[in-house]
Amino acid sequence: MSTVQQPDPSDRPARLTVGVVGAGRVGPALAASLQLAGHRPVAVSGVSDTSRRRAEAMLPDVPLVAPAEVLQRADLVLLTVPDDALPGLVAGLAETGAVRPGQLLVHTSGRYGARVLDPALRAGALPLALHPAMTFTGTPVDVQRLAGCSFGVTAPEELRLAAEALVIEMGGEPEWISEENRPLYHAALALGANHLVTLVAQSMELLRTAGVEAPDRMLGPLLGAALDNALRSGDAALTGPVARGDAGTVAAHVTELRRHAPQAVDGYLAMARATADRALAHGLLKPELAEDLLVVLAGGSTGGTGPTGTNGTEGNPR
After folding, report:
1. What is the rounded distance in angstroms from the CA atom of residue 317 to the CA atom of residue 314?
2. pLDDT (tens digit per residue) in 238-271
3. What is the pTM of this model?
């Protein structure tokens, strides 16, 4: 646990009043982080009982009000709503006159850049897109995790320094993302983080089915090492039966998955094909071993040239 003492917000005067529209997991954490940097949360809006309780826990004594009133009270407004709801929210706030000239309007969507805030820009707001590349729990631990967290930053060029300064105040690392690259940037993060959760959850379910009593304890060291190796070495870190070209072992995997977890087969085959492509491209998978493997991944069975036989139901998992 970190022993670094967080700054006391009472040690310095507040510089900006902060409001949150959408008290999901992200908004209250960012507002609490800005509070530590000397800013003052003054209003938050939330629809569900869960979001309202979260706001009360993360931002005690900050009043819960309607979105339009959040904008009336705050110099800096965090729009932390789901991606699909963001364009309509911005348009509605602008049309009703809730946006004030000179107001900093910040959204945290990974998908969108600053242009989604154009209706507010035309009303005089200062638009910023600050997306934390972090998963959130909706608890105070999120504020600690922002230390060193990268933020995808997109803003008009004249506001770039202001956007990066806000990220740094929250303990984050700003990473500039051009407007046109925002969807690709977000897809990359979703591929790496969101799909990882699905893969790990499926793996734990399969291990339980196989009789492992503590799959989390078994997977923890393995996945930690695999992640570290991948971040350090990229494709050179690939290991396992696909990278080795063990078609019989892969066929055995597919057979067992069809028997015990048919819902996992498509995902296994898709990831195995992607792994095979990368292993081939980087010289890890020998072309002469790839043919039988690709037959298995296409839904057929191995040709049985190795020790696994003709149906691929046995093999060394190594």
Report:
1. 9
2. 999 999 999 999 999 999 999 999 999 999 999 9
3. 0.82
Q: Which amino acid is at 16?
A: L
pLDDT of 99-112, one tens digit each? 999 999 999 999 99
Question: Phi and psi at residue 207, in whole multiples of 5°?
Answer: -65, -40
The per-residue pLDDT for 299 is 76
Cβ(192)–Cβ(180) below 8 Å: no
Helix (H) or strand (E) holding 156: none
Query: Among 67, 68, 77, 64, which residue's Cα sits nearest to residue 108?
Result: 77
Structure tokens at 148: 């060193």
pLDDT in the model for residue 192? 93
Backbone angles phi, psi at 141, to 5 degrees: -60, -25
**Residue 78 dihedral angles phi and psi, to the nearest 5°:** -95, 120
User: For 305, phi and psi rounded to 5 degrees?
Assistant: -80, -15
Helix-helix angle 195-209:247-260, to 10 degrees: 80
Which stretches within the chain are classed as H helix?
27-36, 49-58, 67-73, 86-95, 118-122, 141-145, 160-169, 182-189, 195-209, 215-233, 241-244, 247-260, 265-281, 287-297
pLDDT tens string 56-73 = 999 999 999 999 999 999
167, burial (CB in 10 Å: exposed 0-12, middle 13-18, buried 19+): buried
Angle between helices 265-281 and 195-209 (to 10 degrees): 120
Strands 104-107 and 76-79: parallel
Q: Rounded distance, CA 303 to CA 257, Å?
A: 20
